[in-house]
Amino acid sequence: MQSILSFYKNIYEQELNQSKMMHLYSSRVLKRYFISKKEELLNNQHPYLPLGDAVGEEIIKTLELKSNEVTLKYFSLARISRFVTLNKYESTRVYPLFSFDATVITKEGEYYLYIDQSTRQFLKNNVPQKIVNNREFKKIKHAEQIDFHFASKLTEVIQKATPKADADELMMFPTLWSDRKFKGAIKKEFEVGDQYVPAGVFAIVEKENNSFTTLNELNILEQSQDLSAPLATLFNGLENKSDEKKGIICEELNASQYNAIINSNEKIVSVVSGPPGTGKSFTIANLAAEKVSKGKSILITSKNKEALNVIEEKIKGQLGIKNLCVNPSQDENFSWMKDHLDYVLGRRYKRKKIEFRQIEAAFERFQQMHDVHLRKEADLMQQFRRERDYASSLNHGLAKYSTPAFRNRIFAYRGKSTIPIWESLDAYYKRIGKIRKKAISSLHLVNSFMLEDGLNQYRRELRAYLSFLRAREHERKEKLSKKINYDAVLKAFPVWLVRANDVSRVLPLKKEAFDILIIDEASQCDIPSVLPLIQRAKKVVIVGDTKQLTHISFISKAFERASKAQVPDDLKHLCQHRDRSILHLVQDHLDPQDRVQLNEHFRSQFPIIAFSNQQFYNERLDILTKRPISVAEHVQFVKTNGKRVNGANEEEAKAILDKIQAIIIAEKDLPNALKTSIGILSPFRKQVDFLFEQLVETFKINEIKAHKIIVGTAFTFQGNERDIMLLSFCLDNEALGGSFTFLNRKDVFNVSITRARNVQYIYHSFDPSRLKTDSTIANFFRFYDKNLEDDLGRETIDEFCLEVAELLNNKGLKTWTNFNVSGVSIDLLTQVDDQFIGIDLIGFEGEMEDYYSLERYKMIERGKIKLFPLPYPLWMGDRELCLAAITNLLAPPVEEAPIKEEEKPIEPVIKVAKKTEKPLVKKAKRKYVRFSIDKIETQRSSGSDSDWFSVKLMIGNTKYAELWTTINDKESKLTLSFGFNVVKRHSYKGLEVMLLQELNAWLANRPFYTEITTTLYGESKGDQIILEANGFEEISRKTVQSEGYEPYLQVQMRKPLTYQPGRAITKLMGETVYLKTTNRTKHALVTFELFLKDTQIGSLIVSKSGSRNEAKISFQLNHNFYNFGLEERLMEELHDWVESRRTIKQLVVHIYMEDTTSRILFQNYGFKRRETTLANNITPMRFVKVLPK
């Protein structure tokens, strides 16, 4: 196994040597801008450098158009090297010595350059090893800033290490060389040697794909005998088996996506093969969520920064968890992480006190909901079967010899007495939505628990990590990095999304630090660069597509063969690099059962993906975007008379620019969120560069940003997508055969033609008839010219279908019969605007008698076609009802204007429906009686009494309804119970809703409760329906047997409450709340008093206790001002005072049992209960808070 690691280490080292050294006039530098006067940024004279409008706009446009390929850097100091190449050529290069990350910011319409000095990097590859290895240089290279003192020290080091080098010009720092001076030095008479000069250059450069830190890690890995389980599985024959229980899956997944998650639990190494648009990012996001639900840590990596951003957006957007992911690739300075750590470690953060049993209970409730859902699913399928078989059994049974009129009467009676199946299906989808919400809430709970547990166990370690992130000096940063406990960091922040090349910069090489590693776009990941990543994980999931592009290698076949010499023959098949990615290696090595292929395509319109599906995927994709729309609306070929001159085709470029201009003009009044995103792709670099220059000259910054315009080759676009893609093939009839050979590369072509969502334009200047008939590009043109025709469905003779279609046509709706979508023949398809409804005709004997499975229903729905089940018996019984239900589905939803705060009714009102037009869908009618409740009596706890509330609804002196609350668990849990009662003859007439509204109003000032529960007795279905409509859910149901009584049903309902910590206030009722602090009185160490005008409304006294290092607290608050934030004001003052009194080790407060409000307050601030009994037999509770050392 070590021989395999040595092979890949040597390969990677050679790749580094083959890649071009960074010099200022190399092709890797797209744009360079010299600062020609003095250095003012690095020596902190100015925070920003003003830029001209032309320069600022050019940089921003370039970064937008080539966002995946380039970055902005600032270079300081330079080495002008003159040498003779191996081919005897005289060469002069300008190598920068230090680099910084730079950004262009806009202030008041002006552009400025900003440098992040914490990102300083010494480019040791640009300096002779004699200098790099010099002891003095190692001391100064991490100096706090580059100034004159640093330049003079560097001059001394250079002159000692390389006496022949000229470093005198460095003594001119901070005066800098200009571009003109550099060019003059390059053109002067050639003389071998090095000259070191002061320079300040900001440049747009290509991103690096390899790094020396990865090489160092490969060296460590080569010497190590302790390798991770995935590496042992790949190279050492370890059995690829794992035993991990399934966690919570948040979203409704298709079969292949679900199998990918199951495989990740059962295998150490698994593969997910994802063709374009099949939901790879969605699958990864749900896979990560499933691992988080079990408390696992996840590292997600890719060569493509855009791919990681998409995954992060799906985790945050769809799952709604904002503080789950760390993405240094998007936030290189860890700004968010620093802010979040500062918040949770500070006193502003309110602890949530989540216990593990709460998580177990949440998981159990989720499983109960899922079990109920499965039973309901079986009931729904039984209803489908009854609808299918009813007409057939009637025609061949009871009504076999009866007249049609008799059969129609039976159908009519059944139609009016049966719940429509579409309502049952709608309830099924709503249950899926509820399960999803429950899953996400459980995931939130786990995430909060992990953060709380991490804070409890590793607060000191997390503080150390925060100090590490904030450190600016390299020596301090390096010293702090050795003390970091990454187990603590991963506990608090379980999901990391890091570019493959950045992992070694962000995370140390530690065996199996993460529970699982997910590699996205793995076909672009070379094997040696990901081996250190695999060492960091206990499991690996490889995600990608072998039909798409692989990495680019610069080493020769001969070198690769020579490097295999030391590898045993039986292992040489594992040593392949030039044309094999990590995806190829794993896919070839693993059992086919360890691989899953995603097969549902969601992204591109059917005509766009159809050729790729046929040519590269053997028709295995289920394309869910197919519609009865002309192919020409989505794929358009544009023939030009252009010529390829010096690698560029100006005619094609002009046609593309004209098209973009037309789109921008047409959408100029749309908000940016609705504007079409645009991509421009050419397989040839020179055409891309020409298009790039034209785009920069033609379009404004706001236009480029609004339409998210990017331009590049297929390598740029892998993992990217746009609404409209404009492809420039560039070639003409005189182009050399080699150019067409490159264009025919299957991986290049597949990526090029599958990036568009809605429309794809292909610009070409050659005659397709002159292409080789068996070439990929010839097949492409032939496919759209002859093979792919508009699909408008298939005719039918089914009488039921024709009758429904005719009635829909009469209403002005388009219809298509037997329209095929991914192997599913939709009986009847209809359309309004861009919305499609598929009608599943059930029960009429003939070709359309059967129904679709629920899996098919969900699959078609994922393709944005709503499927509507229409049973023949119900149609015969009530056509108007059926048509109304279909029409309602096609009608656009009516958006009601939001009610402004001041317009909301103050008193709860039971609304009576106004007379309106007859609804399209028949609904069950319920009569409501409006009550004129003339008195609402409420009582609530005050001050130190036990926290409670009651309300009575009165008419005159008669009580019609009441509600009361009690504390559920006086020991620790902040839960509330309530009961309610309504006079029986007036049940379900709106009084229950009024009681709940009063309860909610009281709870608005009780932010500390985590949940509220109630128990229903007997068959209280009406009460249960009302509670469910107000956010309650059933958590248990049991039959209770009491001696001497009949058994009765007991149902417990629960509603979780969102904990909202109080906020310290400085004003109350428009008046300022004044604080008076008195230090060192006879009886107290400190006294804090709150005054409103001249009246004291609260106080907190800290006095000496019997113990030397202990302080006692007394707390009082006017009962009229509870829960307004005054408690928090006093507690924050206490916290600040304690911070300055290091001799106090713990705080003690005594609270009486019935003083629930105070107990809750102190528990929220970290006090824990300790038992005690006082001498006078009064038994208050003793709460203690141990202060950190």
How would you sum up the global shape?
A: globular
Instruction: Report low-confidence residues grouped into runs of 5 or more.
Output: 893-930, 1059-1063
Note the main sheet: 8 strands, mixed
Number of strands: 41
Rg: 36 Å
Query: What structural class results from the helix and strand content?
Result: alpha/beta
Q: Give the overall average pLDDT.
A: 82
Within the largest sheet, what's the order of strands?
34-35-36-37-38-39-41-40
Please, how many helices?
37
Q: Roughly how much helix do the residues carry, as a percent range?
A: 25-40%
* Separation of the first and last Cα atoms: 49 Å
Strand proportion, as a percent range, falls in 15-25%
Please name the defining characteristics of this protein.
23% strand; alpha/beta; seven-stranded parallel β-sheet; 41 strands
Please specify the SSE layout and strand pairing.
Layout: H1 2-18, E1 29-34, E2 48-51, H2 53-65, E3 70-84, E4 90-107, E5 110-122, H3 129-132, H4 135-140, H5 148-161, H6 179-187, E6 193-206, H7 212-223, H8 229-235, H9 255-266, E7 269-273, H10 280-292, E8 298-302, H11 305-319, E9 325-326, H12 335-345, H13 356-395, H14 404-417, H15 421-470, H16 474-481, H17 486-492, E10 495-499, H18 503-506, E11 516-519, H19 527-535, E12 540-544, H20 557-563, H21 582-589, E13 595-597, E14 600-601, H22 606-615, E15 622-623, E16 635-639, E17 644-645, E18 648-649, H23 650-666, E19 678-681, H24 685-698, H25 701-706, E20 710-712, H26 714-717, E21 722-732, H27 737-743, H28 746-752, E22 756-765, H29 776-787, H30 799-810, E23 814-821, E24 824-832, E25 835-842, H31 854-862, E26 865-871, H32 872-877, H33 879-890, E27 935-940, E28 949-955, E29 958-967, E30 975-982, H34 991-1003, E31 1011-1017, H35 1021-1029, E32 1033-1040, E33 1048-1056, E34 1067-1068, E35 1071-1079, E36 1086-1092, E37 1095-1104, E38 1110-1117, H36 1126-1139, E39 1146-1151, H37 1156-1164, E40 1168-1170, E41 1181-1186
Parallel strand pairs: 7-12, 7-13, 8-10, 8-11, 9-10, 11-12, 14-15, 16-22, 19-20, 19-21, 21-22, 25-26, 30-31, 38-39
Antiparallel strand pairs: 1-6, 2-5, 3-4, 3-6, 4-5, 17-18, 23-24, 24-25, 27-28, 28-29, 29-30, 31-33, 32-33, 34-35, 35-36, 36-37, 37-38, 39-41, 40-41
